[in-house]
Amino acid sequence: MSHTLTVQWTITPVTAPRPFLACSRCGGHRPFTCSGKTRLNANGRRLDAWLIYRCAACEDTWNRPIFERRNVANVDPEALAALQGNDPGWIRQVAFDIEGLRQCTDRIEEFADCHVERRVMSGTTACTRLDIVLVAAQVSSLRVDRLLSTELAVSRARLTRFEAGGLLTLVPEARKGLQRPIRHGSRIVLDLSAQDDRAEIAARALLAS
User: Which pairing describes strands 61-71 and 168-171: parallel, antiparallel, or unpaired?
Assistant: First the structure.
């Protein structure tokens, strides 16, 4: 019988990053929030597309370029349909594309709030080892220690002791791994054999605390 409980956590960030930009109405730099709306203009066979943001203070708008002067034949049909229909899922992918935002501004406000969906891959809560597989299709600034502390109800200080004592391992390994943002495909392995509350920790890995 296996003494390892393997669970998959699918992590979905809740709040999209906000760029700080010069607001002409406010007269200073302000955070801009994605409106969830796109703008598509056509000039003959050329298309321009933007994602519309609004100043958090005054509602002034900023059009984030998606592409400009693009020949319609070179636009992905799915992207074009999404732009024409303001598809929420497609817009969300663009809104969370922080690398794309970095081409527009040097200052970006990121948020760590997320929703975690759990799925048992193998094992039961009668375990001595917990193996958490992370699925994070979208980039998030959520740190590993904050994720574990929130979802397992284990203090960050205790997690640090686990790591220092070789009871917590991140795969792939990284220096100061607990302090790094979560990454898609990584694994967190906890040796719970010496923990009196191992059943409670394992249960919280399966159900939100």
Answer: unpaired
